[in-house]
Amino acid sequence: MNKLNLRTNKKNEIIDITEDIRRLTESSGIKNGICTVFCPHTTGAITINEAYDSSVKTDLMFSLDKISPVYKEFRHAEGNSDAHVKSSLIGLSLNLIINKEKLIIGQWQGIFFVEFDGPRNREVYVKFISE
Amino acid sequence: MNKLNLRTNKKNEIIDITEDIRRLTESSGIKNGICTVFCPHTTGAITINEAYDSSVKTDLMFSLDKISPVYKEFRHAEGNSDAHVKSSLIGLSLNLIINKEKLIIGQWQGIFFVEFDGPRNREVYVKFISE
Amino acid sequence: MNKLNLRTNKKNEIIDITEDIRRLTESSGIKNGICTVFCPHTTGAITINEAYDSSVKTDLMFSLDKISPVYKEFRHAEGNSDAHVKSSLIGLSLNLIINKEKLIIGQWQGIFFVEFDGPRNREVYVKFISE
Fold first, then answer.
1. Do C40 and A109 touch (CB under 8 A)?
2. What phi-psi label fits residue C100: left (phi over 0), alpha (psi between -120 and 50 degrees) or beta?
3. C63/C117 Cα distance (integer angstroms)
C-alpha cells in the first residue's frame, strides 16, 4: 500500500493528485489492473473532474457549500457536519483502471483530493491490483 | 462472495457494518488486496463517515432530507423517489484496501449501510480480491 | 480493457448499460472477481438505480437539477458547471462483483451512464479482475 502525504491550507480546497497517482502507477510495475484510491478522513473526499480550467474546482466548491450548508439543527459538537455531509456526497474511494502500464483517465480529467475542513495534514492511500 | 443480512427499522437509518466487514476480512485469509462492498438495493447506500460521535449520522440524514426532498413533481408511483435519489448521491459500491491482513480505514471512520426507505430486510455483498 | 461507445441525445439523459456490461462479463470468461466501470468524461457519471420503472430516472434527473442548478456566480466559461458538479456528486467509477460467471446486481437495479451535458459521443471503460 502506498501513502501520499498532503498539507491543506484552508477550509475548502481541492488538491490535484493526478501526477502523484501517475508516478505511483509507473513505479508499481503494474501492466494491467486497477488502482484503488482511498481517503481515510471523514471530512475529506476523492473525486475526478476537469483539471484543465481551475474555475471548475471553484464552481464545484461553490455549489457544494450551497448543497450542504451549516444548519442550526446540527448536533455534532465540532461544528463541521457540513464537511462530513460533503465527504459522503462526493465519496472517498475511487477505482481507476491501469492499461498497458498507463493510468487511464479522460483527456480533461484530474484526480482530486477534496478538503472540506482544513487546514490539516492529510493522507491518501493507494493500492494496485494486477489482473 | 459473502453476504451480510440486515434488518432496518425505520425510513432513514444508518447501520454500522464495520465490525462485520472486519470479521469477514479476517476470516477470508487475505493478506493484501481490496474488498468491494456492494448494496443490491435501489433505496439503500454504502458510505464511510465518522463512527465515533453518532450525531454525525443524525446530521448526515438531516442534510440528505434537505438535499433530496419529496417533490410534488415526482412521477414514480411508489412515492419513494427521494430515497432513490439519495441512493445515487451517496453511492452503493465502495472499495476498501486490505493491508497485512487488516482492513484499512481511518481512525474515526466507520463503514455504514444507509437505509432510505425502511423498515426492510437488506443484504450487503462483500467480495475480496487478493493482490 | 473494454470500451463501450454511446451516443447521447440531449442535455440530461440516462442510458441503461446493464446489458452491455453483462455481455462483456460473459465474453470475458471471468468466473469470480470484480469489474470496474469508469466514465472518462467530466460531465457524465456512472450510477446504479431502479431500471424497472423509468420514472425513477426522470425523478432522479429532476432532483439533480434542483440540487445542482446553474448559479450566476459560476466562473467556468463553458457555462456547464452544473454538469461538472453533478458528475462529482453521482461519481464516475463503480465496482461490481462477478460471482460464478454472473454479474451481481440487485433484482431492480440497472447500471446507468448519466449524461449531464449532451448531446455527445461518450465512452465507458470496463476492466475485469479475476480473484
1. yes
2. left
3. 16
pLDDT of residue C103: 98
What is the DSSP secondary structure assignment for residue B112, as one 8-state letter?
Answer: E
Measured between alpha carbons, how far is A35 from A28 in angstroms, rounded to an integer? 10
CATH number assigned to the domain covering C2-130: 2.60.120.460
* Nearest residue of chain C to residue B96 (CA atoms): C95
Taking residues A54-62, what's their average pLDDT? 97
Q: How far is C97 from chain A (nearest CA, A)?
A: 13
A-chain CB neighbours of C74 within 8 Å are 55, 59, 62
Residue owning grid cell 451516443: C7
Alpha-helical segments (H) within A5-52: 18-28
Q: Calculate the average pLDDT of chain A.
A: 97
pLDDT in tens, A14-52: 999 999 999 999 999 999 999 999 999 999 999 999 999
Q: Please classify residue A100 by burial: count the beta carbons closer than 10 Å to its beta carbon, then call 0-12 exposed, 13-18 middle and 19+ buried.
A: exposed
**ipTM reported for the complex surpasses 0.95:** yes
Is the pTM above the cut of 0.90? Answer: yes
Counting one residue from chain B and one from chain C, the pairs whose CB atoms sit within 8 A come to: 98
> Between C81-90 and A81-90, two packed helices, what is the crossing angle to 10 degrees?
90
Shortest CB distance from A88 goes to which of B34, B90, B96? Answer: B90
Compute the average pLDDT of residues A113-126: 98
Query: What is the per-residue burial (b if ≥16 Cβ within 10 Å, else e) of B88-118?
Result: bbbbbbbbbbbeeeebbbbebbbbbbbbbbb
Distance of CA C13 to the CA centre of its chain: 10
